[in-house]
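Researcher: Next entry: MoxR-like ATPase (Jannaschia helgolandensis).
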Amino acid sequence: MSDDLLDEIEALGARLTDARTAIATRIIGQDRVVELSLAAMLSGGHALLLGLPGLGKTRLVETLATVMGLSGNRIQFTPDLMPSDILGSEVLETAPDGSRAFRYVEGPIFAQLLMADEINRASPRTQSALLQAMQEREVTVAGQTRKLPAPFHVLATQNPIEQEGTYPLPEAQLDRFLVKIDVDYPDRETERAIVLATTGGAEAEARAVFDPESMMAAQAVVRRMPVGDGVVDLILDLVRACRPDNPDAPDSVRKHVAWGPGPRAAQALMLLVRAQALLEGRLAPDQSDVTRLARPVLGHRMALSFAARAEGVMLENVIDEVAARVGRVEQAA
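Model: Predicted structure:
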């Protein structure tokens, strides 16, 4: 590792510590949720926040936009939402001289941090409008391609309980999310702190620590961080072991998993383990980062068979078993 890169990593680590302190003024607890959200953004990707209403998902996204210095928009997804409501559309205008011309009006997707609230409530047609934007960072309207602001991140929320009137996200779109983040109930002491902090006369205000240019510079540093061969091998072994058609996959995978993760899962792990190490003040990731990120990265990129669901098999347990087994093999090697 060069001295210049070492200095950049250390400086970025200090700045990220400052950012997490700023976030903690408004987001009490939920340290793992904040960490994974920041890791996804540092990796240049998108995140799917899965949790019940009232757990602070909207507040988190708003705080992240402020602290990371990004322009933010929110879209409340509903069944009657149309693609043009997201992407924008062309309107016909009449000039004072009587001439008429089309003018493009940008939709809310033209933001650096987009909150897609309850994304599974929109129709498949509207959900697909996000697909090109999430992958290509551009949209096509009326035959013309328009670049989205840089950086561009989507943080989508989804209610895991209420499924009436919803449209499950297709596998192709789920795969575009770098990570899936489970937002759980806080413990008693954390909930007490939340109640006291949010029901007084004034609430804490977030402050900007980054700006768009420094955010993109941070993403470039993440991609330059070194990754050891052992970590790379563990990533590949883990992803490939979760595919049921792999003859070397564990029995639990070949028996219970209908389809497994593709190469994009390995790419996501390569980026996220670097961001995880950076957030913890380390200069390079280790194998423990891979196993810790197995659930958030793989959970939405594979599915149980119908028989496995009927038997009550939990996908999280299958992933944990594979991660533990592959990790032991790597350590033995």
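Model: Note for the record: The mean pLDDT is 89.
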